[in-house]
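Sample A.
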Amino acid sequence: MADLLGLSARYIDEGIYEGPGSVNRVTTELSEISEDISVVEAFSHVVTFKTGDGLVLFDTSLEAFAGGIQKNLRAWSDEPVNTIAFTHGHIDHISGAGTFVKEAEENGNPRPRFVGHENVRPRFERYEMTNGYNAVINGRQFGGGSGGKNLMGGTRGGKDLVIDRFGPSEWVYPDTTFRDHLAVKVGDTVFDMNHSKGETDDHLWAWVPQHKAICAGDFLIWCFPNAGNPQKVQRYPLEWAHALRQMEMKGAELLLPAHGLPIGGKERVRTVLSDMATALETVVEQTLKLMNEGARLNDIVHSVKVPQHLLDKPYLRPTYDEPEFVVNNIWRLYGGWYDGNPANLKPATEAAVALEMASLAGGVEKLIDRARGLAEAGDMRLACHLVEMATLAAPDHKEAHGARAEIYGRRREQELSLMSKGIYGYAERESRKISDVNE
């Protein structure tokens, strides 16, 4: 067993950061946090409580990990599973549920009770309606994206996992749902379930007073909060900060996230929750101030900053999401999709604009040369604009795609967040196929 509390204490107290894999580990190993609490580290973790009347699990991870999780959990306890709480409906948290249903049936035990917010079911239904789209965007985000496959891994997982569809082979729906608050008692242990918006609109976090513990789900992921994912539905950064402040008021001595390391110690827990809330509040306050002054989205994106001393924290590094993306999500939440640029209200096609720019520049080759020059000078943002125009103006131009692959490949290497790396890497691979440039 790993000393997860000791590891997190070292990172937090000493400000040590050894890369995303050091804090978001995928081992499928079980570590005992106390006599009655364990954590199995997987694509999302499974946090388990012994209650004297069966086990209570928070999340079940991905279906592909469920067998290993079950095996290691059974080496720790042979108590039947009484209750499984879905912290929210993302597939990396709920897809292993069927394994525990099957286990109960095979052992002649009652089916576990599944607890979740009332919006979990609509989320599952939406995933079925948009299954192909979710496979595409997750292919980009996590580095796959070919042949209908979906590569899940990277910063939050640290391990590649290929699945054939978006979601489990069979959805397991919550049979006990709630809107704002639900107290669940199993044995002598009370689990105080609370709904708050954050990464999703169906998220719960639980206060377990007997253990002075908080099960935080994805409200804590040991990197900058995933409140801006550019390819996913709406996130709620201000509500997320409010939830963290509510947790902070509990005086918890143990913080159990679904990604990253558990945290022990009242002051340590308070500091982490406060720092994360402050980071989100800072982005929201700056963005809304500029929106209220009539600024365009593009100006706001380039103006809002999070203090570097916060981003340097080992639990706030922007290795998955990043503040710039959160700004876009705040604008979408409060301001709609019009970005303030009148030309973008009813725009020309991107290809038409690209053709015009190529004509003005003196040909696609001029755009290619200028894009490469900007990249060499370190202006990757502008270089990407020009090389993208070159391939839009001439979709079959091998040199243009060669330059696009080079520039996006270079930009991918320079980026810190998994989301940026995934999208730029996908673009690089697209163009390599056309340019015949070997990887």
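Sample B.
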Amino acid sequence: MKLAIILTSKNPEINWNAFRLANLALGKGDEVRIFLLGEAVEYYKVNQEPFNIQEQVDIFLQTEKAKLIACGTCMDMRHQKNSKTCPTGGIQDLYSLIVTSDKVLTF
């Protein structure tokens, strides 16, 4: 299955759960893409106990079946730079992700 997850929040519990679900799906052999939209491009700035988001992201990025993309416009508005844990993409990437996925979830 091709699973798309769209994150729109920087709430640590919400993002932690989204990445945990993504990692579970990867473990079952699925392909997972996560698109960061709006304030979600700041997800890595909020890491509070007991929600270790960075640990989940590190696990997520270890496989070729996982892809993380961040809205470039949302990043520009927040003066953020492209990085491995927040790679710049665009609205075309979001569209492509939606039309090529079997399931689309939003958090």
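B remarks: The two ends are 19 Å apart (CA to CA). The mean pLDDT is 95.
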